[in-house]
Amino acid sequence: MIWRVEIRQRQGIFDSLGEGIQKSIQELGLSGIEKVEVTLVYNLEGDLAEKDIKKVCEELLADKVTHHFFYTTNLNPPASQENKNLHIIEIAYNPGVMDPVETSTIKGINDLGIKGTQSVRTAKNYRLYGRIPDSELNLIVDKILSNKLIQHRVNPDASQKTLAITTSETKFTLIVVNLIEANDKELTELSKKGQLFLNLNEMKTIQRYFKKLGRNPTDCELETIAQTWSEHCYHKTFRSTISYKYTEGGKKKSRIIKNLFKSTIVKATKDIDPSWCVSIFHDNAGVIKFDNDDHVCFKVETHNHPSALEPFGGANTGMGGVIRDILGTGLGAKPICSTDIFCFAPPNMSFDDLPPGTLHPLRIMKGVVSGVRDYGNKMGIPTVNGAILFDHRFVGNPLVYCGNVGLIPKDKVIKKVKKGDLVVVVGGRTGRDGIHGATFSSGELTTESEVVSSGAVQIGNPIEEKKVLDALLQARDKNLYSAITDCGAGGLSSAVGEMGKDLGARVNLEKVPLKYKGLNYTEIWISESQERMVLSVPTKSIDQLLEVFADENVEATVIGEFTGTGRLELFYNDTQVCDLDMAFLHDGIPQVTKQAEWHEPKLKSPRIPQANDLAEKLLEVLSHYNVCSKEWVIRQYDHEVQGGGVIKPLVGVNCDGPSDASVIRPKLNSLKGLAVSNGINFRYGMIDPFWMAASCIDEAIRQIIAVGGNVERIAILDNFCWGNPDKPDRLGSLVRCAEGCYKAAVGYGVPFISGKDSLYNEYTEGSESIAIPGTILISALGIIDNVEKTITMDFKKAGNLIYVIGQTFDELGGSIYLDTFDFVGTTVPKVDTKRGLKTFAVLHKVCQSGLIQAMHDCSEGGLAVALAEMAFAGGLGVKADLKNVPYKDKDKRDDTILFSESNSRFIVEVAPKDQKKFETMMKGVVFGLIGRIETTPEFLVHGLNDQVCLKTNIMDLKEAWQKPLRF
Amino acid sequence: MVNEKDKVMAKQPKVIILRTAGTNCNEETAFAFKSCGAAVDQVHINKLLDGEVNLKDYHILAIPGGFSYGDDIESGRILANELRLKLGEPLSKFIGEGKLIIGICNGFQVLVRSGILPGALNELEEKNYAFTQKVTLTNNDSAKFEDRWIHLKVSGNSVWTQGVKDIVYFPVAHGEGKFVVKDEMILKRLKDNGQIVFRYVAASGHASQYPDNPNGSMENIAGITDRTGRILGLMPHPERHFLFTQHPFWTRLENKTKLGDGAKIFQNGVDYVKQHLLKDKSTLVASVLS
Predict the structure, then answer these.
(1) Over the stretch B89-110, which tens digit does the pLDDT of each residue have?
(2) Chain A residues with CB inside 8 Å of B240's CB?
(3) How far is CA A11 from CA A37, A432, A454, in A?
(4) How far B97 CA sits from the closest chain A CA (Å)?
(5) CB distance A14–B216 less than 8 Å?
(6) Distance of CA A919 to the CA centre of its chain
(7) In the predicted structure, residue B286 carries a pLDDT above the cut 50
(8) Which of A90, A119, A153 is the last residue of a domain?
(9) Where in the sequence is the domain holding A957, given as residue range(s)?
(10) Residue A787 pLDDT more than 90?
(11) Is this complex's ipTM strictly greater than 0.90?
């Protein structure tokens, strides 16, 4: 029997959900809807009498104060009443899409002592009041209420017989692919049809392997190879040979790069050779020393492709994935904070400008933020740092970077699978979710991606992962397993394949716990269902391990063994479905030579008239989407759970100023801390990716310096998001960027400890291909010896002195200021690491001696924005003089000095009594005393000609900065 | 084994921090109680259900923040039902023996939905008290989760708030924190009994609106107790303002004390146990983190 239960708000109880939806409808530009009511629907199937349902409603589903409930055996939602201007729309998840509420509800019903519930499906019923044409109603359904990849509108007339997913047990048939006799055309076709994303050369290599064996591969073998060799898992581009042509100083040059990753990123760390790096590049995350007992590890991942299609689910599982990276580092680390960086198209983009098949950027942004919020908050991991940037070229390919930091005991860093260990899968069950995620993210998106790849979209279950975390750390501390890997892209195939690389593994696929019947062996093997980890467990510990997981209600199942044969052997019941040589699987991929070219772009040197009113200009720059306040986002994240927050993302007298790096103390009984920051600016890359990389490294470091950090204890991560690297110009700029990474990292002695790349971020629409601007994200992690000596950016006290530290140049290229004139410019900010290093080192010393009251780095918007932010965050005014800003270039203008984005610069507040001591300590570093903090809210700047060039007040500045993204 | 436990109980206040799927503020809550001199166990509800651990071996029950069971259906609902239906008897006994309970954020939601708070509102109800829900914490008016620092005015007469400053500064971090009562009578009783102990206010101490009242709570109510003042529930997080470096602008403060506004609340709980349940006058008012 199936019951339909409706839960509604009581009269007089404010329906905030309905109110929120009405607001979204208005934002869509539709005005016909006067009121929205949201009803929660639970469909319950099982042996349930009416008295049972009544009890379930009264004691579980409905709140006694705010709700009333209805139940019926008529499963159809009520029909719309057009004459009364009432439109009723019901949205439910598609079969197979994870809805954690369903399992919780069954548990809740069982707790009431009512047994016999078989399935639960939930839905949301929306009652929209108002006169509105069908076309607009459909728009609301599509744009606000549902995403057709995971949800559908419930047809009021459909009759449902059962709620259970009606996939039946499929009869087992072994699928063999006719590969060895295929010609080139057929090979290409096979790769395309099977969504393998393998090129012809790779297909031929596989063909040769099986020809030698004298047999055809099974579908499962082919899928395993495709997944292992995918760009996502193997990073073919960074490991390939590159023939690089470029111009330097007007001369054409060329050279061969053997392995871009090893010759830039890895080489930087090798050249620096820091003693405090513990594990770099070979595990899930990079590990560095923290204190006498623990190390810390750091990883940032991208989840761009899934987020483009289903923003909530994409970001949600992106977050879940990077947390599992940390759980799977060494023998498992405890996640202590997150960082999230996004790039979207501008939120005010017109619907008419959207390419077909893409979602509106505002919807993507809201979905992505909700996805991160949901996962991070529910896992109890504070999201302490982030950035959001905007550019119209991200319209088809938003960038979603999710990062996580973990704490790991010193003796838990090394993992080693041992022969005879059992393969144990723990956590969530396996369903059909996310099939082909790894290979899908290794290709370009098209207008059809929405339809073809919908299996790659899924939603996470953070509570399942939290349970895994709780159980896992207990098992780790009891030494119950010898190795661990997360199930990410490629699922079990990737995890078991990776762990069994040296020894070989045998897995019985029918033992894997499934969400529902009907998955065939290959689907089980490559499914990317979330919240799963694979452990290698010595037989002697297995009973104890299973008990630890059972105690936390987490499923743990033995599915195979690490054998020592060097082969990957998969069985479904008694039939072998895969028998591959691990050596071929991991090392058999053919090396390719890729073509790359980089030439300086032909950009105009803009000649802009200096605006009469620089105050207007400053307000405009502060309101730029890339500069303005992201408070609306930050507040939705729990950035304080675990209690470790020392410098929060929002600081100042009203807790609304933008801090530089965030600082946490992961152990509340210790003063040792961590600073987390990021550097990202794709606009510089439009001029020169080399200097983009150097500037991003500089920015990430100086944010940590600005809170009092030490440049000698900073580690960084690289995350490249680029277009299609098979196109020589895209690859050329990638090479140039990687070289900038090497140069700046070595110059600053700041090592890379981990990284990731996401390529093929292009959107093909007909014959046109939109590539994202090549974007590098540098994430930095600094060790802070004493958190009580850290400082914040808000001005503290009227009468204190304001200094500019570092040299300003005419470097407006790529600046926000030029963007307000629609120019990119040419004079990209450069980095002088020798001078920068000296500045960073001296500032750290001065901080430690307590002479600095406030410090802020100059980044987007330059000195003017930094000064304004410090003033309104502290609620204090400013009087400053540009004459005293150390400036070194020909074109000396007020606007250049104010808005140039030269690197390695800071603004610092010093008490007058400390002036002498401060200036003595700063010897050898360029600085200028430019003004004073005032009690009045006036923001007054004198120009080079001694006249006032900028006059406004901190209220207006703050309003301009807060307004654009205040939803 | 039992003897050992009894021995510890005789000397040191014992706190049980209840954990289940989705609990996540247990570590910092444990840190707060430990720093005040308590012995703390973080216990999964499974251990209470299977009898491996007993409530009677503790003086204070703390239900920390988080998203128990994902807050599916309604925040705290499933854990509240588990407590009410499966642990009702030991809980009634625990309360009857004059022991203490604190529920923070999700813990407050659990206390409210299980009917442990506000509890009996008069003597008549007290006689045969059955756990039934009278008030609720529902979706914020803003319809979203928000993390922000808020000021609270302290009133009423609870063991947990003795000697706490008039106005304290804590963060809230929730999406379902709007306090609503079932009817006016209940609100009147809560007031008359002095059960309203925390109200959202502006920094000045005056009644205010959003964002000072972050969720639209009735009468700005942020925290309540039972009639005895021994059971406290509040949406804001005192354990997140235990150390002064947790203050959102500690770098601006002249007097940098070592402790934040929340420390006194945990100290009160521990001291009350020493004084009233352990009758140990010698170690009264241990200084936190000394």
Answers:
(1) 999 999 999 999 999 999 999 9
(2) 640-641, 643, 645
(3) 11, 42, 40
(4) 27
(5) yes
(6) 42
(7) no
(8) A153
(9) 791-967
(10) yes
(11) yes
